[in-house]
Amino acid sequence: MQFVLGLIAIALGPLTSAIPAAAQPKVNIDKPNIEQIFADSLTALPKEELGVSGGFYVPAYSSVAMSQGKLRVDFAVTLSVHNASETQPLVVKRIAYFDTAGKQVESYLRAPIALKPLASVSIVIPTDDVRGGTGANFIVDWAATGEIAEPAVEALMVGGVANAHYAFISQGRPTRTAGRK
């Protein structure tokens, strides 16, 4: 009997895997789910009013012209957002990726998240994703319930051509002064 059931399962296998695409859950594998990937770095959103806020502009070079503009080198970009506070959660309200023309390419948060003290999250733009171009950048908006160490936000670019490999960091620049609203 088990042999017959095994044959039925083998015979139906191709049919059961051929479920129409509309019936399968839609998963965007290109867009990371920060809440799942970094679950250990996150905590509950504070119930208190978020009285302090700030933002960062982070240049991110997904493509760089080399050899007097005759060669384009594409880079993988890793954006990292670090809560520099040892005691306070940091609420990250927005992580958005923009191209050279200032058009938003991607948004990475569905809702605000809270980072535990000294925790971090990151976003990876693979080498073959050149949507950002030579002037790509991120905007990261954050908030906290009170005075807090300003977060560290930076992008790491890694790539190469032939036998030459390059890696460099671009630090985030505050877009507004951190402080009370």
Output the keywords.
single chain; 181 residues; mainly beta; 7-stranded antiparallel β-sheet; 2 helices; 12 strands; 10% helix; elongated; disordered N terminus
Work out the oligomeric state of the chains in this entry: single chain
Q: Strand-residue fraction?
A: over 45%
Number of helices in the DSSP assignment: 2
Contiguous runs where pLDDT drops below 50 for at least 5 residues: 1-29
Structural class: mainly beta
The overall pLDDT average reads: 83
Straight-line N-to-C gap: 72 Å
Report the strand count.
12
What profile does the largest beta sheet have?
7 strands, antiparallel
Write the layout of secondary structure elements.
Blueprint: H1 2-16, H2 34-37, E1 42-43, E2 52-59, E3 63-66, E4 71-82, E5 90-98, E6 104-107, E7 113-115, E8 120-125, E9 137-144, E10 152-161, E11 164-171, E12 173-180
Antiparallel strand pairs: 1-7, 2-9, 2-12, 3-4, 4-8, 4-10, 5-6, 5-7, 5-9, 10-11
How would you describe the overall organization of this protein?
The chain has 181 residues and is mostly beta strands. Helix content is 10%, strand content 45%. The chain is built from 2 helices and 12 strands; from the N terminus they run ααββββββββββββ. The chain has helices at 2-16, 34-37, and strands at 42-43, 52-59, 63-66, 71-82, 90-98, 104-107, 113-115, 120-125, 137-144, 152-161, 164-171, 173-180.
